[in-house]
Amino acid sequence: MKRSTPAELSENPAVDLPATAERIADEYPEVWASFQQLGASVGEAGPLDSRTKRLVHLALAIGADSSGAVHSHARRGIAEGIPPAELEHVALLAVTTLGWPQAVRGLTWIADVTSASTGSAGA
Length: 123
Prior knowledge:
The protein is mostly helical.
């Protein structure tokens, strides 16, 4: 049986995995494959379209205060054609639920990605 690479198992192989995720996927391929399968299964369990799911994932990552996940979902959102303004709007929506500091962190992490994707200096 051919062993798949982490990128081949990713929901968006066009987006490089961060170094740590790539290392874990290489060292524990069965765990990575199971994790990817779980993500695919929950993604297919309901009626949301892929754009909405990406924005929800981004919102959850902001709410979880997860820099890595916000960066990841912002990168994948950009790769999937979601405009930076829509990603930023998700962070702004966090103001009333999560508070100003959390929303600003989310905006900052999104800007790290959107600035890099446009060739501008990072935030």
